[in-house]
Specification:
This protein is α/β, with parallel strands linked by helices and 345 residues long. 44% of the residues lie in helices and 17% in strands.
Amino acid sequence: MTLSERIPPTPAPGGTTTGGRDATATGDAGGAAAGGRDATAIVFPGMGPSSFAEVGKFLLLDPYARKRLAEADEALGYSVFDRFRTSEEDYSVHSQIAFLVNSMAMADRAVDTLGLSPTVCTGPSFGQKAAAAFVGSLPFADVVRLTADLARCEEEYFSGAYEDVVTHSFVRTPQERLDEILAGFDDRGAWYDVSGRLDAGFHMLSVREKELDGLKAAISAAGGYSMYSMRPPVHAAAFKELRHKAEEEVFGAYELADPGMPVVADQDGTVVRDVAGMRTMMLDTFDRPIHWPSVVESLKGLGVGTVCVTGPDNLFHRLDLTKDSFEVHTVGLPKKRSRERERRA
């Protein structure tokens, strides 16, 4: 089951439900732009679990993906495709690089064939990496190497710290009910860290794995719905040492530049316009939670009425907050039915 298949319909006023309304890969709109906001933002999505079976064919056949894949191979000195094909983990280094390649390839397609000309960029969570390449803060080859270096850095860190921690995502849980759940953690002295808020009632919480079943039960009792548990965990204040490790062992080898357009930081909606801000934003991802509502408010403040989500996104373009705030276009992987028709042909 993919992450998108785990997202239930969102309750609408009056007790009815509305399913996620996806724009097509050709750029059809999924909403109505707000009056007076005519700027366009490009959004690089956070990484969801994906398998070689889902994206391997795209990497081989899509001309934009092939070009970016060749650049990644040259940057690393080996075939990313071959290593991704044998990878068994959702977030292995080669899965991450494949996701980065596909995100950049779809941005290339949007610029070349759809005439995308954004004036603002954002990249929640893993999407920061593609965003850094798109705005020119790092060459794509450097972003590929940085991704591989950070994956190894995180693997080393979590092999000796917080080995039993996962980041759990869940929806339909109002803040007051979440507060009650967290009070229960506090009462029994159980550790947790808030790792993100994506929409009203949509949260990410890092907990020790032994607490996960109890958390899921509490979410269900509150009327919520559990989605996906991520390992390694992400965006937790407890991971300050990981931040320091990444800064000292990885980022020192890369020279960032000022972004070519404003970048909205996914932690608090800060508008980043210089190299110092880019570096801070990319380090903040380790120990500060993501907060998508702040990103949306900043984009609106910058006059953005249209967002184009370019990458294998099963989440951000489907959030009610995104759809209610912007005209939404997506440039992503071919739909499952399209792939099935291709196989039959």
